[in-house]
Amino acid sequence: MVPAFLSTILFSLSAVSANRLAKMLGGLEANFLRITLAVLFLASWAHSFGQGLSGEALPMFLLSGCVGFGIGDTALYQALPRLGSRLSILLVHCFAAPFAAITEWLWLGTTLTPAQIGWSLVILGGVSMALAPGTHLNATPRALMVGILYGLLAAFGQGFGAVLSRKAYQIATLAGEQIDGLSAAYQRILAGWFIAAVFLLVVKHAAKFKTTNDLAGEPGLGSLRIWKQWRVAWPWIFTNALSGPTLGVGCYQWALLTTPTGIVLPIVAIAPLVVIPFARFMEGEQPSVRSLLGGGIAVAGAVGLTLAQ
User: Fold this and answer.
1) Closest residue by Cα to residue 241 from 4, 44, 1, 2
2) Residues 6 or more apart in contact with residue 181 via CB below 8 angstroms
């Protein structure tokens, strides 16, 4: 339970720094840079103190990364512009947890007690109250439907990716191997980095590097602007890479080593609520009464789930 709570706090810090970073560099570049830096961090650990790219579970961890980072993150970034951040995150967190729990039960035979199921639903209910959009969405029916489908696909990616990690740990155990959370995160993120790199190249090629050309059209100013952006952005790149895909995913994998997905994912779902104090301190954002009430319910559910565990 402790690594699940740690991953929640780290993911929250990552979300705030990612928001600041995306405004500086753009979402596509920011996502690729943070994953690239995280790969370097995790590789330093895995090849010095961990398992590196060895082990019987390596193919399953790579597959988990393809599903989680590849399908899940790509679908999420398609849902965000259509549904907005609140509804997109709501769909992902509230559908990923039950999907993962059912899949793990059918595939791996992992069962949850009625108390664990009940407190998990309390958490998801609190998250739903806090994140539900307060106004009508300004979207056409078609855009809304497409966005919902992408949101559900993102939930599938997150949920099934977590179950695949649980299966990978099972394979390692049966082979008499042990793999730490940071090494598992490294093996997973390699697949995600490859997909992010391909996606970046495709999008940049399709756009014909419009942003670069625009900057180059102002003699002497393009390089200066890019240098100023990087000089301001690098602390946020470091913070995001370290808190999210490095330590956050490492704790997440550590949690999945010992705890069923049906318990880990509801706790991780609190991350958007833990963002509230970070956003208040770092960005001056004022939380609403409903978000605070929903956050209180979700935290109460997390406490109950801990006691039930």
Assistant:
1) 44
2) 3, 250, 251, 252, 253, 254, 255, 257
Q: What is the pLDDT along the chain (309 residues), one digit of tens a residue?
A: 788 888 888 877 777 777 677 667 666 677 778 888 899 999 999 999 999 999 999 999 999 999 988 888 778 777 877 776 667 777 887 888 899 999 999 998 888 889 999 999 998 888 888 877 665 556 677 888 888 898 899 889 989 999 999 999 999 999 999 899 999 999 999 988 888 788 778 777 666 555 444 444 444 444 445 556 667 778 888 888 888 888 988 998 989 988 899 889 988 888 777 777 766 666 566 777 887 888 888 888 888 888 876
Judged on CB neighbours under 10 Å (0-12, 13-18, 19+), 170 is middle
Residue whose pair of structure tokens reads 């990690």 in the numeric block:
165
In whole angstroms, give the CA distance from residue 270 to residue 113.
21
Alpha helices in 140-270 (DSSP H): 141-174, 181-207, 210-216, 222-241, 247-258, 261-268
Cβ atoms 6, 251 nearer than 8 A: yes
- The answer to whether the CB of 262 falls within 8 A of the CB of 309 is no
The domains of the chain are located at 2-308
Tokens 């009464």 -> residue:
289
* Structure token pair of residue 274: 């833990």
Model's pTM, two decimal places? 0.80
| C-alpha span between 70 and 64 (Å, rounded) | 9
